[in-house]
């Protein structure tokens, strides 16, 4: 039941994010959230703080990446929950060509309804190749 509810909430938040509204996602984040996106692309980061994460998420939304959750697992007690989201994301060019496509896993920890930390795992080579496309578009 927890996983079902979590998927509905995450799916709604990602739907809003796809439309450029990050407010629902940011409401879930603790002020001192820890975030990690490994790799050596321009997306790679390790940061702490909601304001820094908001800047990273704004770039994600501004570029127009479309993100979808395929499966969500939530377990634990309210003061110490683990969340895992497996999904896919992509971007199509204005001409309709798929210029980026990836799968991801988000692994995070929630306490009392706030996301305290999370890490995103993707194919980092695809993220790096995406940087090349963005550079050609003048978006890096």
Write the layout of secondary structure elements.
Blueprint: H1 2-18, H2 23-27, E1 29-37, E2 45-48, H3 50-63, E3 66-77, E4 80-92, E5 98-111, E6 114-122, H4 124-136
Parallel strand pairs: 1-6
Antiparallel strand pairs: 1-2, 3-4, 4-5, 5-6
Terminal CA distance reads 42 Å
**Mean pLDDT, nearest integer?**
95
N-to-C SSE string, H for helix and E for strand: HHEEHEEEEH
| Beta-strand residue fraction | 35-45%
In words, what does this structure look like?
- Strand 3 and strand 4 form a beta hairpin.
- With about 140 residues, the chain is α+β, with helices and mostly antiparallel strands.
- The chain has a 6-stranded mixed β-sheet with strand order 2-1-6-5-4-3.
- The chain has 4 helices and 6 strands.
Task: Write a concise synopsis of the structure shown.
With 140 residues, this protein is α+β, with helices and mostly antiparallel strands. The chain contains four helices and six strands; from the N terminus they run H-H-E-E-H-E-E-E-E-H. It has a six-stranded mixed sheet.
Summary keywords:
six-stranded mixed sheet; alpha+beta; 140 residues; 44% strand
């Amino acid at each position: 039941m927890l996983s079902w509810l979590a998927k509905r909430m995450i799916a709604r938040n990602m739907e809003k994010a796809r439309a450029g509204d990050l407010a629902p996602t940011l409401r879930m984040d603790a002020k001192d959230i820890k975030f990690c996106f490994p790799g050596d692309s321009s997306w790679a980061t390790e940061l702490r703080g909601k304001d820094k994460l908001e800047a990273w998420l704004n770039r994600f939304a501004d570029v127009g990446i479309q993100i979808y959750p395929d499966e969500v697992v939530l377990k634990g007690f309210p003061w110490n929950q683990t969340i895992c989201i497996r999904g896919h994301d992509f971007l199509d060019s204005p001409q309709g060509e798929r210029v980026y496509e990836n799968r991801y896993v988000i692994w995070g920890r929630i306490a009392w309804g706030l996301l305290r930390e999370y890490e995103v795992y993707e194919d980092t080579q695809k993220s790096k190749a995406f940087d090349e496309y963005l550079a050609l578009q003048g978006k890096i």
